[in-house]
Design goal:
The chain is of the alpha/beta class and 358 residues long. 41% of the residues lie in helices and 16% in strands. It has two domains: 2-147 and 288-331, Rossmann fold (3-Layer(aba) Sandwich); 150-284, Rossmann fold.
């Protein structure tokens, strides 16, 4: 008999349900007796011992379902040692829930912050297996996270739609893409949809370089320009500021996000008509794409295998086209960002895409 706790933490994304289903299907298929404790709203459920017992039926029909059947929330790692709203020690509460329920392990699905807490629980002696979710694809130790491909599809669709309007009206269009501090989503959606300029956090931009790229297109007879701009894109000047200084500057910014700053600067310097589209949380929503369904199921199956073998302390990831296990202590606290020297960046530049840097 295995007693397994499961939770989904942080921003939701597509294929969370597919991944949990994968774990549970693997366990049931093996013939092992299992009891599954589904903690509600991420770590909050574990802290407050708020859970529901789940059976195979709960995982039936959820392969294609977006969101998470367990609900999610953010419990920032930096506050993990601060008492919760009732004055309780969060880490001690989580340990207490785990031991009280006599769990064999926790299966935790999440991104960067989630992995820091998962690793903390591991160091506190709990058995933990994690699965890498996030549309940002910025988790260290895995080439891919589930949710990413689905989000690429959505952001690509948005830019595709904008293309026709940009063409009809001869305007400059900016589509702001999610991704937090990483440019993976913008880079991939931008390339997939034929964006002319791609701005990502890892390659600081200059407005003058962006305008030169627009002018080059005009000279070639193009009536419109499309920019895919990562929500975390940063100018060369701002990249020189300290974290603290930049945070202060953002707080004082008159616009809700960097895309509007870029739009204003382009309009001011060129007199061109510029429009901004922000698909926002749409990018995390809806049914997972086929790739993510398969990928998340494979990760789930491997997690199931580790549980059956009693091997804990790993994130199940993906490296060089293989499903792999990566020690949690190696993953926690590290970001996987786009390297400005990556081959894909060079190839994009060879295709004439500007990153606003030269
Ligand atoms: O990490 C996923 C993500 O969607 C990021 O791309 C984005 O910066 C952030 O979450 C948005 O967070 P929230 O859902 O809390 O607004």
């Amino acid at each position: 008999m295995k007693r397994i706790g499961m939770l989904t933490s942080g921003g939701d994304c597509q294929a969370l349900n597919a991944a949990m289903r994968g774990v549970v299907k693997c366990l049931y298929t093996s013939g092992e007796q299992v009891e599954i404790f589904g903690f509600l709203s991420g770590y909050k459920g574990l802290i407050k011992s708020d859970f529901k017992m789940l059976t195979g039926d709960d995982f039936s029909g959820i392969l294609t379902k977006g969101g998470t059947i367990l609900g999610s929330s953010r419990v920032p790692f930096k506050t993990i040692d601060e008492p919760d709203e009732e004055g309780n020690n969060k880490v001690e509460c989580m340990k207490h829930t785990y031991h009280k329920l006599n769990l064999d392990c926790l299966v935790i699905l999440g991104g960067n912050g989630t992995h820091k807490t998962a690793n903390r629980l591991r160091t506190e002696g709990l058995n933990v297996i994690t699965l890498p979710k996030t549309i940002d694809n910025d988790l260290w130790g895995t080439d891919m996270t589930f949710g990413f491909q689905s989000a690429v599809d959505i952001a690509t669709d948005v830019i595709d739609c904008i293309h026709t309007t940009a063409d009809s009206h001869g305007r400059v269009f900016i589509v702001e893409v999610m991704g937090h501090k990483a440019g993976w989503l913008t880079l991939n959606a931008g390339m997939a949809s034929g964006a002319d300029i791609i701005l990502i956090p890892e390659i600081p931009y200059s407005i003058d370089c962006i305008i030169e790229a627009i002018r080059r297109r005009e000279k070639r007879g193009s009536k419109f320009t499309i920019l895919a701009v990562a929500e975390g894109a940063i100018s060369k000047e701002d990249a020189k500021l300290s974290k603290k200084e930049y945070k202060k500057k953002l707080e004082k910014m008159k616009h809700p996000s960097v895309s509007y700053e870029v739009a204003d600067a382009i309009a001011e310097k060129t007199g061109l008509e510029v429009r901004v589209t922000v698909p926002g949380h749409m990018q995390r929503g809806g049914s997972p794409c086929p790739y993510d369904r398969v990928f998340a199921s494979r990760l789930g199956a491997e997690a199931g295998k580790l549980i059956l073998k009693g091997e804990y302390g790993f994130m199940v990831g993906y490296k060089d086209r293989e499903i792999v296990r990566v020690p949690l202590e190696d993953v926690a606290g590290k970001l996987k960002l786009v390297s400005p020297d990556a081959t894909i960046i060079k190839e994009a530049k060879m295709l004439g895409i500007s990153f606003g840097d030269e």
